[in-house]
Amino acid sequence: MPTLQELRQKVDLELAGGWRVTVAVRENDVVGFVAMKPNEAVLNELFVRPEAIGSGVGQALLAHAKAVMPAGFTLFTRSANARARRFYENAGLIVLRQAAHPRTGEPVTYYRWNAP
């Protein structure tokens, strides 16, 4: 397990490499975040706490990603995550392909969002 200092150094390196992270907060509680790399047009992670699912947090974070990357972006999610897949497809993202995760080999679905 890395130390807190090692984690901070890693975060600093990632941010210097172009990462952008936006955190959603409600009543002083973190309820979600989106991590993206705009210079590569990649949405890497969109997470919403389970108790906040369906409250609009995910939609707000995805709208933020669309505003930050208005020319479009790609992402992938686990193919078995039906809820996430419905969310992305209902939000207008297009399935590009299904493949194995580059590290774990787990089935993932790749998506693309193109500006209207």
TrEMBL record:
Domain called N-acetyltransferase: residue spans: 1-116
Pfam families: Acetyltransf_7
GO MF annotations in UniProt: acyltransferase activity, transferring groups other than amino-acyl groups
SUPFAM superfamilies according to UniProt: Acyl-CoA N-acyltransferases (Nat) (SSF55729)
Classification via InterPro entries: Acyl_CoA_acyltransferase, GNAT_dom
Protein name from the UniProt record: GNAT family N-acetyltransferase
